[in-house]
Structure formats: structure tokens, C-alpha cells
Hints:
Elements: H1 2-62, E1 74-80, E2 84-93, E3 104-115, E4 122-133, H2 160-163, E5 168-170, E6 175-179, E7 183-186, E8 189-191, E9 194-197, H3 205-219, E10 220-221, E11 233-234, E12 240-241, E13 244-246, H4 252-261, E14 265-267, H5 280-283, E15 284-286, E16 293-295, E17 297-298, E18 302-303, E19 307-308, E20 318-321, E21 325-327, E22 332-334, E23 336-345, E24 350-353, E25 378-385, E26 390-394, E27 397-399, E28 402-405, E29 420-428, E30 433-438, E31 453-460, E32 467-478, E33 483-487, E34 492-502, E35 507-511, E36 514-516, E37 518-521, H6 531-551, H7 558-562, H8 573-578, E38 586-589, E39 620-628
Helix pairs in contact: 3-4
Amino acid sequence: MRATRSGISLILVMFALSMSLVLTYSFIQTQSVLTQISENGARRDLAMSAARAGINDALNRMNSLDWAGVNDQYLREFQSDSDGTSTYSISFQAPSDSLSSVLEIEVHSLGVWISAENNNLRSEYQITAKVRLVPRLKGRTILPGDSASATDQAANPGDFDVIRQYALFAEEGRNSLILDPCDRIDGNLWLNEDLVLYEDPNWNSSVRSTFLQDLGNRLVTFPDGSSSLSDASLQYPHPIAGNITFYNTPSSSIQQDLTDLKINWTTTADRPTIPSPDYTKFSTYQLYAGGPEYQAVSVSSSLYSETLKPTPTNPLGIFYRNGSINVFDNVVIQGTLVAKNKIFFRGKGIHVTAFNWKGATGEPLVPDADLWPRLPTLVADDVEFERNTQTTIEGAVVCHDDLNGAGGSVSYPGASAISLSGTATATSIEQPHSTVTLNEFRVLDTLTSDGQYAIWLNTTGMGQTGATGTWFPIVGVDSLNQQLTIRGEIDHAVPTGYEIKLHKQTLAQIRGPVCAETYNFNRLNEWVLSTSLWNDRKNTWEVGNDLRTLLGIDLLGFSEWLADPLNFPGWDTYYQLYGLNLEPTLHIQHLKDQEYRWEPPLFQPYDDGDADSEYAGYRWSLIDWKEIP
């Protein structure tokens, strides 16, 4: 009995010892796991600290002149001791999923800790910050901590900033500019030498002088108390609504023409020159210095019934040809058309406009879209408008040699004649369109949306440009809401006068500054009459005014009389329909001071010469932050 009890006691002791060993082992194992977890946490913290130090370093670098751009990748040591080394590696990536994201950059910081004893023992921590470039634009609102002198707009080379202030700049030529009836320029001109004005109609000096004097008397007005030509306002359709600056003093006969037309002119000893072209800056380009590279879209030698627009892979909408381009019917381009040789406009329904960074409903794709600089709309060695083309160019035109053509005869489509007028407002939407809202109710049922009708919107220009306006083809009609969709970019919040009529089938319009070596615009053939016919026109007008004097009726100016088709009985159909009016078939306008850049990129980091300047470099806004252990 006693032996049995001893056996049981031994078993209990052995069980207790076993349980004690199990508990001890479990405790030791738990402590080992806790130690490992603690060590892993410490390593992760070291990797995390490295990643956060890296992202701060990268963001600070992007806001300085040290940032080398999206290809700027580097690895730096953060901390090192006997246990191991922690580092961070930085890389940049530009998303390209939409036009609104072209200013965004993803900044990647990878923090890594590696054991000093075992390279396979490591911990990683990833941080991704998404930032957006905030270019400092001219004309922006200056907030505390900012400076109006700090701007990220890329500098223009040479004299382009001077040249783009003129509606028309002619760098060379004995005959720098040749103008004929039905040509009009709104804005100031710079001419190297002579202006050849209204020489083609084949009239004698007496008829020509009478015509020019009538234009000056009828279309030039002065403010009260002034008779100075520098204060004059030149009204539509006066051929030149602005001041002319000559490099070479014009001949006495040209000076007399300017006096007759009441055009103010001066001479200058300064001779700006058009910068030399570098077409490679357009074929492969950056939106901002340091940003991703984009490829211009290569186009064929002939464009017909095409619509070309910017894309995330071509955000400036540059369309490039290593040669010449012929542009035929129904071509709409939103962006910049570049040709190393000639751009020849030969069709109808052509519209080319520099990208304005607005979406489908007119919403800006980037902050302060209205302040963004634009590239020229056209860049080429030569530009020519076929006589019968119907083309509108919105934006600057850079021509390194000559710009010629236009001057087609007045003609209208065979649709029903309409004449509506009133007041309206206009708002630009997705290029190349704007919405016009009529203030007074009008019956619009007979209007079509195929461009056969157009609306003239009254506008005012800068300086001496008086009352003027522009024709916009109508491509959409909403009778219920009294709204029209037009092809062209215009914002007019204050009601302005309008007219709706059939759209001219022959019309070349440039709404922006133009530079070239020389200009030769075609004459309208209907203005080329024999000397005897011109004498007959002048004599008939004088007889009519004699009769008006006897009857006590206001006299008519010669140009006004010629514009009336009723004064051409028995003449060809053209004259019986249109007379000889000055309604332009070539119209160049420079009505607002838009910022233009000579070539890409549009932006570069601000550098005032002081490397430690608080304003140096770009400025970025943080839009997203992700951490991945």
C-alpha cells in the first residue's frame, strides 16, 4: 500500500516538473517573439523615419533651383550604426491620364533599413506624395509671402516681347506692307520701310486722293478739345486703326497718304528683329522646364476635314510638319500648327486657335487659365492665304519670311437672307466655341447651324482702335434659350451690339499679333477698274452731291457713295449686289494683351540670381499623401 502511494507521488512530481518545463519554454518563446516584434518595429521605424526624411528632402528640393526635374533620382544615407544602415531613395513620376493632371508629379520616397550583419535582413517603408505645380503667373493676385517680381513664365528670346505688342510687325523689305481696299488692321504697326497703300485699283492721283481723304474725314474722330492724331480714334472699316512706327522715314507721297487718312506715325532708331527659329523645340517639348517630355503630333502635307486637339500625351496641342502644309476645307485645330516651310490655307471653314486650357463647358482645366501664356498659333517660314479661303486664326502668328495672299471677292452662300440685330453677351467654352446669349427675344427658326450665317459682335480695341468688331460663324442654335454657339473665342460679360447675317464665304481673319519680314495682301479684282471708269465714278458722285446741295440734303463721302449698290445700274452683278464697299475680306486684330511664349516650355523655375532667394525655384501644392509600411 505504501509502495503504491510512493509511485503516485512520483508521477505527480514528474507531471509538475513537465508542466513547469512547458510553461518555462512557453515564456521563453513568448519573450523571444516579443523581442523579435520589438526589433521589427524598431527597424520599421528606422525605415519610416528615413522615408519621411526623404520625402521632406525631395519636396524642399523641388521648391529650389537644385531640382533637376522628373528624371532626378537619387539615394542618400539617413542613419548608420553598428546594427545597420537606413537610407532613402527618391524618384519622380508624371501621371498622364488627363489634361488637368499635366502639372502633377508623384514623388516617391522609399526608406530602407539593412542589417549590418545580414544584408537579407531589411525593412522598407514607402511614401508617395502627389503635388501640383503652381506656376507664378503675371497678373496673379499677390498674397503674403509672395512677390510680384517672381514669375515662373519662361523668358522670351531676343525682341519677341517688343514685337508681340504690335498687331503687325514687318522686319524687312523695301515694300514692307502692301494693302488694298477691303484689308483692315486693328492695332499698332511697326514697318521697316514703305507702306504701299491702295495702288492696285488703277485710279489716277485725283481719284485716289479723294477716296483716302474721305476715309480720313468720315472714319476718324477726335476727343473734345483735341485735334492731335495721337488722340484720334479710327473707326471700322478704316484700313489701319492704330499708330505706325517706321524704322526708315517714309517717302513724301506715303506721308501724304497718312495725312489724308489721318493716321499717326513716328520713326524710331531701334530696330527689333524676329528671333531665329529652332523647330526642334516644337517637335519634342516640355510644358515646364524639368517636366516630362512630349512629342508633337506629326501631320501630313494636306489636311482636310480634320479636328486636332490637345491630349495628355500632347498637352500643348503642337502639330508639326517637317515641310509644307496645305490646309483645305473643314479643318479645326486647337493648338499650334508648325511647318518648317510654308503653311498654305486653301479651303473653307478653317479655324486654328492656340489652346486656352478650358474644358467642354468652359471650366478651367488649370487654376488661373485666363492668365496662362500661350504659344503662337502658327509657326512657319512662310504663310499664305489663298484668295478665296475662309480661314480664322486666333492667336499669334510667327512667320520667319513672308506672309501673303487673301483679298478674295465678297460672296455669300445661297441661303435665305436674314438681318437681325440687338444686344448680347458672350462666354467662351471649349475651344474653338463660345456661347452667345441674346438679350432681346428674336425668332431664330430660320437660322441654320452649318456656318452659313454669322454674328457680328461689337468690340473695342487698345489704343487708337475705335469701334470695331468681328464676324463669328454660327454652328449651333438654341431658340428656346435664345442662345447661339459660335466658332471663335470671345468673352463679353457686358451686353454689346450684334448683327446676324449671311456669312462671307471669302474671309481671312487673324485675331492676334503677326510678325513676318514682309506682307503682300492681294487686291480684290472688282476694285481694278480702268482709269476712265474711275473718273466716271468720281464725276457721277460729284454731280450727285451738287444735286444734294441744291436740295439741302447732307452730302455723301466718296467711299460711302461707292459702297451703295444702287449707284452701279447696268454694271456686272457683283457691283449691283455689293457696290464697292470696304467690308474687309482680310482682317487682322490685336485687341487684348495676351501673354505669348516664343517656344516651349511655357514655364521655368524663377531665378533672380540669388541661390538663397526665398522666391527661387518652383512652387508646388500637396494634393495627396500615401504611406505603405
